[in-house]
Amino acid sequence: MNFSLLRKSKETIFFVVDLLMVLLVIINLLWIIFEWHFGFKIAQDFFIRFTPSFYDFYNEELHKNFLKYDVWFVVVFIVELIIRWAVAIKRKTYHKWFFYPFVHWYEVLGCIPLGTFRFLRLFRVISMIYRLQKLGVIDLQNTWALQLFKKYYEVLVEEVSDRVVVNVLENVQDEIKHGSPITDRMISEVVHPHKKVLVEWMSHRVRRVTAQNYAAHKDEIRQYLERLVKDAVAKNNEMKQLKGIPLVGNTITSSIETAIGDITFNVINSVVEDLASDHNKEVIEEITDIAFDVVLLEEEDKDLNQIAINIAIDSIELVKEQVKIQQWKLKEEREREKKKKVNAL
Hints:
Layout: H1 3-8, H2 12-38, H3 41-50, H4 52-63, H5 66-91, H6 100-103, H7 105-110, H8 115-118, H9 123-135, H10 144-177, H11 182-191, H12 195-216, H13 218-235, H14 237-243, H15 249-276, H16 281-296, H17 302-324, H18 327-344
Helix pairs in contact: 2-5, 3-4, 10-17, 12-15, 12-16, 13-15, 14-15
C-alpha cells in the first residue's frame, strides 16, 4: 500500500468519512439484528435470567424507543448523502448534476429505514476499494480474489452475450426463410448507397487481376489459341481443298493457319491489355456498373432465389457455431498447457 499517494490527493477526508460511515452502518446493522432477536420471548427470558439489569435498561430506554433512535441514523445517512452530492456538483464529477444518486443508488436505497436496504450501504466498501485502486494506493490487479472475480465475470459476460447473439442470428434466419423484407432493405438501404464505391472497387479488381494473371499465362494462352486454330483449320473443308493443291497447298494452308492464329491472339491480347489499362477505367466501370445492376435485379427464378436463401442461412449457421464456441474454456486449456510446459522446464 502506498498511503503517500492518498495523502497527496484531495480524497483523504472523504476516505476518513467513508470509514466512519461504514463503521456507523455496521453499528446500525448490528443493533437492528440485535433488536430483531430481542423481540423474541426466548431472548428476553435469557436476558431476564442472566442480566436483569441490562434487560431493564435496554427494554425501557432502547427497545421501546428503537425507531426514535434509528431515525437519527437515517438522518445522518441522508445528510451525508446530500453533502457528497453537493461536493460532486461543485467538482463537476459527473456530466449532469442529477447523475450522483443514480451512480450511488446503493447509498440512496440505504437511507430507507429498513434493515434489508441498510445492508446496501456496505457497497461503499467496494467503492472505496475501487477509488484506492484508481489512485494507486493499493494494487489488486494480480491478487487471487480479483483474478477469480475477473475470470467468472468474463465467463458470465461471454455466456450471456453469446446467447443474445445466437438468438438474434436465429431471428434473422427465420426472417430470411419466411421472406422477410430484410433482404430487400439490405439491397436498397445498404448496398445501393455504396454502389459507386463497390463498382470502382470491382473494376479496379478486374483490371488488377487481369494485369497480374494475363502476363503470367500469356504464352499458355497463345499456345492454346494456336491449337484451336490448327484443329479448326484441319476440320475445315475449304482448307482441305487448298491443302490438296500440288506443291503449294501445304505452304498456303500453313500460312493461313499462322495468320489466323496471330490475328486471333493479337485481337485477344489487345482486348485484355485494354481491359487492364487505366486508360479504359471509365469503360470498365460502366460495364461493371451494368453487371452490378443485373446481379441485383429481382429474379423470377424461384430455384435461384432459394439457393441464395440457403447460402445466407448456411452462412449465418456457421457464424452461430463459431459464437457458440466457449472461448473461456479454450483460454483455460491454453493456460493449462502453458503451465505444463513451464513445469516441464
